Amino acid sequence: MSTERERAAHRRAFGELAVEEQAHLARLLKEWSMLADFCFSDLVLYVRSGDRYTMARHVRPATSQTIYQEDIVGEIRTADQRPLIDRTFRTGTISRGDIDSAWLGERVRVDAIPVNFGGRVIAVMAREFVSAYRPHPGNLEQTYESVFGRFASMIATGAFPFPAEDIEHATVPRVGDGVIVVGPNAELEYSSPNANSTLMRCGVEAITRDVTLRELGFAPVSIRSALANGRPTVEEVDFPGEVTVALRVLPFLDGDEVTGVVALIRDVSDIRHRDRLLLSKDATISEIHHRVKNNLQTISSLLRLQGRRLAEPSARTAVEEAVRRIHSIALVHENL
């Protein structure tokens, strides 16, 4: 939930943008956390306000430590304080370098990425981090930063973010769940440790790079579709052994060419198992209610038959009263 400070910064920074430009930034912000996790860095969205730059949004990575312990949304910086941001706004190209941050008291590495929409730079997304925090990146870190770099290039050309997707956010995979990088010919380029574990549960016996997914025995429609049409896809796939896997697949684009995809993968077997239990429980409860209703109707009918055979007025009145009470119970049960 956004704070009042964030809402004020949004009004101040986004007020000069067209509706379509604001919608483009809104789609980018929905991918905010994923991008921060891929680059192991804080991301700051700068929007121009006259000759100054407003820090309109900020996200911290879940895969690394943040360099900003306090809230920076709404802060204003000049061109002298953020020369790389200013250069990127003016040139429309990615700028990289270091700045001395009086705020942090440290030298901060900055990658300034233009957010292009309709051939115009409407904002700058800055990756900000202290390189001393990650002196020796491993294969996972290098791969994730490469994925971020490919998305950054797409942001700079206006190819990313994609149009709004209809996805179920409760089960959509995140970077920490597992990552698979696939080449343009559906060959496996990288699979994270968490993704390896999920693939093994799906029945993949051996995970080998540069082998196609079909040869591995894992070829979901979502990956094939994203490679074919260059659009993001979401899918849930069931495997033997009551294994259910959720996939979100995002293509890498270079102009009109699909150069590969990245798939976020998550084992949602436990969630779907609980869903099935809930459905089974709901069906059982519904059946019990149906049987209770039928039993009450049967009792009411038997009492009516018995009442017709009674000659004593007081006995017949008592039976009719019982029928009315049972009918009232049936109505209350049906409403509940």
Q: How would you summarize what this structure contains?
A:
This protein is an alpha+beta fold and 336 residues long.
Fold and architecture overview:
This protein has helices spanning 4-14, 19-30, 32-39, 83-91, 139-157, 193-201, 213-216, 221-229, 269-309, 313-335; strands at 42-49, 52-59, 76-78, 95-101, 106-117, 120-129, 179-182, 188-191, 233-239, 243-254, 257-267. It is an alpha+beta fold and 336 residues long. Strands 3-2-1-6-5-4 form a six-stranded antiparallel β-sheet, sandwiched between helices. The chain is elongated. The model has no long low-confidence stretch (mean pLDDT 85).
CATH top-level class of the largest domain: Alpha Beta
End-to-end CA span: 35 Å
Q: Unreliable runs, pLDDT <50, ≥5 residues? A: none
- The strand order across the widest sheet is 3-2-1-6-5-4
Strand content: 25-35%
Largest sheet: 6 strands, antiparallel
The CATH topology of the largest domain comes to: Beta-Lactamase
Number of self-contained structural domains? 3
Q: H/E element string?
A: HHHEEEHEEEHEEHHHEEEHH
Q: How many H/I helices? A: 10
- What is the general shape? elongated
